[in-house]
Amino acid sequence: MNKIAVFASGSGSNFQAILDAVEEGLLQADIQLLVCDKPGAKVIERARDHHIPIFTFVPNSFESKAHFEKEIVNELKRYHVEFIVLAGYMRLIGEVLLRDFEGRIVNIHPSYLPAFPGKDAIGQALQANVSETGVTVHFVDSGMDTGPIIEQVKIPVLPGDTRETLQERIQKAEHRLYPAIINKLLQKDIIGGIVQ
Ligand code: GAR
């Protein structure tokens, strides 16, 4: 099991970390496809630079989530994708994708879940004035950042931290953690927390 697709919506620094880990041999995976719901996102440039096939779509131009997820599933099947990595894909996964891939979809979230789920987890942590937050990698279910947790690390919030400084510290941890966890899951053939 090593054919993966990465889903992203934004800058793609985690996508880049995954690509780099593959190229350095630290992550034994073939990135078959980037799926992106924002046709102008920077992550698309990164995929193009590395000759990774891209499937980009405009969600609003579809009748429903089920309709665009059907298109995504068709693309995933075309590339024989077995495992999905969400890397800043800012959308809930719906029942069409879950039907075929539940247990084979992971997500990274910039908080120590269950604290601060959903959008702007870093802003939420700053607003709450906590002394530490974190990073969580988890399997994806139909909820908002609710699936079974695979691994978490704590990250301190330092006096004077701004969104930028805290995000930088969090993303540094994400870039180290995510490729290593993905590699472990793929090598051990772990689906939904169960070794196959
Ligand atoms: C990452 O920090 C990731 O944890 C977060 O989006 C950022 C994407 O950055 N994901 C979520 O908030 C999901 N709920 P990137 O595009 O530079 O990888």
Description of the molecule:
- With 196 residues, the chain is of the alpha/beta class.
- The chain has a single domain (2-191), classed as Rossmann fold.
- The chain contains six helices and nine strands, in the order E-H-E-H-E-H-E-H-E-H-E-E-H-E-E.
- The protein has a seven-stranded mixed sheet, sandwiched between helices. Strands 8-9 form a two-stranded antiparallel sheet.
- The longest helix has 25 residues, at 163-187.
- The mean pLDDT is 96.
User: Which architecture name does CATH use?
Assistant: 3-Layer(aba) Sandwich
Q: What would the principal axes of the Cα set say about the shape?
A: globular
Structural class: alpha/beta
Query: First CA to last CA: what distance?
Result: 11 Å
CATH evolutionary superfamily: Formyl transferase, N-terminal domain
Per CATH, what is the topology? Answer: Rossmann fold
* Percent of residues in beta strands: 15-25%
Number of separate helices: 6
Poorly predicted runs are none
How many distinct folded domains? 1
The helix-strand sequence is: EHEHEHEHEHEEHEE
- Across the major sheet, the strand order is 3-2-1-4-5-6-7
Small molecules (ligands, ions, cofactors) in the structure? glycinamide ribonucleotide
Q: Average pLDDT across residues?
A: 96
Major pleated sheet: 7 strands, mixed
